[in-house]
Fold each of these.
Amino acid sequence: MNGYTLMKLNKINDFRVQPAWYEYVFLYSVTAVSSIILGVSLLNKISGLYGWLALILIISVSYIYSVIKRTRDNRAKQYYLDTIQDYSVPELQQILRRQQKNKSEYMIITRRINYLQHTINNH
């Protein structure tokens, strides 16, 4: 690998897919409508059943979005790992110097270096 490629590889965020605008619109509209229905239900203007349904809808949508976010985060970490797969130990150590110790990138690179050094030592 050349130095230019090493300089381009920075963070897992480079591989993270951000939600599209329609995902935000859907989330905010469901939350807004459900909140209004829940509020009206609490004021006893409509049946309490609608309030419960609105609450269940808010919880369901929040759960779905948290699963989507977690899946995107896991995929970003996997893409990052796949990208550093071909680097040698000196190249990984060069990248490691630019990382903060409390970040995911640091842990992934450290594990990869340990794996490569362990593999080299066993052969």
Note: Residues 88 and 116 are 8 Å apart (CA to CA).
Amino acid sequence: MRYFYALSIVSLLAANAAAQETLTLKEAEKAMLAANPQAASAALDLETARNRLSAARGGLYPSLSASASYSRAGAQGGDPYNSYSYGLSGSQPLFSPSVPASVRSAAASQRASQAAYDRVASRLNYELKTAFADILNARETIKLSSETLKRRSENLELIRLKYQAGRENKAALLETEAVLKTSRWQHARYQKNLRLLERELNRLLGRPAQSPAPALSLPLPPEPPEELSAFEPRLGNHYSLRSARAARDISAASVDAARSAVLPDASANGSYRWNGSDWPTAPNSWALGASLSLPLFSGGRLSSNLAAARTALRSSEADLKNASDEVYLNFEDAFLSWREAGAYMDVAKSSLDAAEARAWLVRKQYLAGQTSYFEWRNVEEQLITEQNQYLAAGRALIVSHAAFTQALGE
């Protein structure tokens, strides 16, 4: 494809870019993820999941605790006395299937939180790329509008001279004046729209809304390949699939936990204590042992919980299959849209070249008196339309590539 050359919406910056610090897309992504409250919330959720996983793993290791007590008592007519008690106690699970199940559930929850964070980051990156494309498109539109204003001012002077010489009618003069005033109004509207877009970018980056937007640098989107097969291996790491797999793993861990509820639970316990009325010379005692518990009757609660957990597991497996289908369909749709936008870029460029050549020719013919004002006017309008369509095609190409990247889960 030839859409790379003359892609002005991407390759050109604002007129004062040399005097400003240029903000690249990578720098903007870092600033956005650090300042955006949605990204911060997702990052905190991920940190919470990591801490819960550490807490769940702690159930696999022995626990040790210390205790101490002191009291002073007495009776009327007698001397008061002290009472001390202090010691150590510990326990170690020997057979507790519910603990490994809770660890697997916490690990799956962490993966789900990571996928949720990646989902937020992917959506914000898409919004950021779209904001870059919109601002660059708006700046190029203003530049094009300025050139149009200059050309239409020259046209008005030309029509006025022809009217004063009696070679053009008053309707043409009045219409040219109205067109120039309309162009001035459109130019002011373009400036307003640019300011609104810059404010949205500042908000996305966590900057003050009134701050002037910097010059922007956006890399050219690559040319889309002919086939999808090059991207399919990366699709397996999509955040939606990782989230669905984590939900299935949580359900599987719930099944294991419900199944372990009908199994015995065994643990080893030990303690060493000192107690008496004098410290530190106080009697001591120790104890070592093990405990075993086995549920005998629960009124059907345990079996019902197991059946519910198995049903939830089958549901999560169905959700995973559905997520896989949706991810692939969205991915294919985004790829086709990206390739279509790249193909249309060639069409827009060819149409613009043809409109520029025809506008130049018809202008020369009008100056030589070989064509009418109305034909010249129509050709001028067509040229402006093709210029705007070319800019819009460049924006659509960037946005479609950003949508494809999001559909890829990146």
Note: Confidence is low (pLDDT under 50) at residues 1-19.
Amino acid sequence: MAANPRGLALWAAALSFLLCIAGGLWILTSVGFKHDGDDAVWTGLGLYFMGKAFFVGPMLLLAAARPERR
């Protein structure tokens, strides 16, 4: 049985959004917005993953909603 490409793209959009948000929140809660030493780098990395979640997830969702070309 062949997989539905649109359904697969919707699952990929939701999964990428959730995993990037979870990773960013995990990094931020373990570091906690500290600005001394290497903690500033980890804080930036956590914020990067949170921003990435709000870009990659919706882009995959828009790509899945795009009408098929024939």
Note: The chain has a mean pLDDT of 86.
Amino acid sequence: MSNYIVINESASLIISVIASSTKPTNSVTHRFIPVSDAILTKYYRLADKNRNGTLVGAGELAAISPAFLEMLADR
């Protein structure tokens, strides 16, 4: 089972995290990026900050995680 961050393509916002035994298919509106536990920890730290309901941006996570930046750049 692998973890995937789900990104809304038009807004570049992380909308959820899912676990799946097979990689979900990317679509025009959503992109699924496989992530490690270390990247998830960084994501949850960002998401847990007092954000007043705002979602974490993909660029925001990429700024603190070089591994996520590499995966984000892979198309």
Note: The two ends are 22 Å apart (CA to CA).
